[in-house]
């Protein structure tokens, strides 16, 4: 059997919601035959990111449009001025943002992450998903169709997955 394809699921989460959604997504990708960790962005060895091909980022916004504490180091690294613009050319990614539209800076952390990944040469497999705590169905309203779309696009690269 050929080696299982790798897909990393990374989260930034202040009060565990993004972590829980990331873990749920990771279980689904694992059943589909992908390997790779589910980790807080700050627990992930960031030097590996240049080698990754597929990633999902689940990113909450906390404070006043701020990054959650467990992605602050990762984020600071990504902002380094000396990173070449093509650092992440291998990476194909999706960002799922978790926020609340009652805040002025709705989903700012996820939006900033998406934009910075683009600047570093990574390719978005789909547009950022903007989950809104104010929605009647909560974050599921966006998470479910967003993940469905991500997996449909992933299947174009790995037609054998179910
Ligand atoms: N959502 C936003 O879109 N913008 C914000 O500035 C923002 N600030 C928040 C500040 C606090 C103290 C809290 C409790 C929530 C805030 N939110 C904001 C909403 C969170 O992003 C949302 O509740 C999310 O689901 C939290 O995910 P987490 O549990 O993984 O941290």
Brief description of this entry?
32% of the residues lie in helices and 18% in strands.
Q: In the CATH hierarchy, what is the architecture at level 2?
A: 3-Layer(aba) Sandwich
Separation of the first and last Cα atoms: 16 Å
What's the main sheet like? 6 strands, parallel
Class by SSE composition: alpha/beta
Can you count the beta strands? 6
Radius of gyration: 15 Å
What's the CATH H-level superfamily name?
A: Flavodoxin domain
Unreliable runs: none
Helix content: 25-40%
Mean pLDDT across all amino acids? 96
Q: Tell me the CATH topology.
A: Rossmann fold
> Which term fits the overall shape?
globular
CATH class: Alpha Beta
**Number of helices, counting only DSSP H or I runs of 4 residues or more:** 4
Describe this structure in words.
With 162 residues, the chain is an alpha/beta fold. It has one domain (8-157): Rossmann fold, CATH 3.40.50. The protein contains four helices and six strands. It has helices spanning 17-31, 72-78, 108-119, 140-157, and strands at residues 8-12, 38-40, 54-60, 92-99, 123-124, 129-132. Strands 1, 2, 3, 4, 5 and 6 form a six-stranded parallel sheet that branches. Helix 3 (108-119) links the parallel strand 4 (92-99) and strand 5 (123-124). The radius of gyration is 15 Å and the shape is globular. Flavin mononucleotide is lined by residues 13-19, 60-65, 68, 98-100, 103, 105-108, 133.
């Amino acid at each position: 059997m050929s080696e299982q394809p790798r897909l990393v699921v990374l989260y930034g989460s202040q009060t565990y919601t993004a972590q829980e959604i990331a873990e749920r997504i990771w279980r689904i990708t694992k059943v589909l035959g992908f390997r790779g960790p589910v980790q807080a962005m700050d627990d992930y060895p960031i030097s590996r990111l240049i080698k990754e091909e597929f990633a999902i980022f689940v990113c909450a916004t906390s404070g006043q449009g701020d990054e959650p504490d467990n992605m602050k180091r990762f984020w600071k690294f990504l902002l380094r001025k000396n990173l070449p613009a093509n650092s992440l050319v291998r990476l194909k990614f999706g960002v799922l943002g978790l926020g609340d539209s009652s805040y002025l800076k709705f989903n700012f952390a996820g939006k900033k992450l998406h934009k910075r990944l683009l600047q570093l040469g990574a390719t978005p497999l789909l547009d950022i998903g903007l989950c809104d705590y104010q929605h009647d169905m909560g974050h599921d309203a966006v998470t479910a169709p967003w993940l469905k779309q991500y997996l449909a696009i992933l299947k174009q690269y790995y037609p054998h997955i179910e």
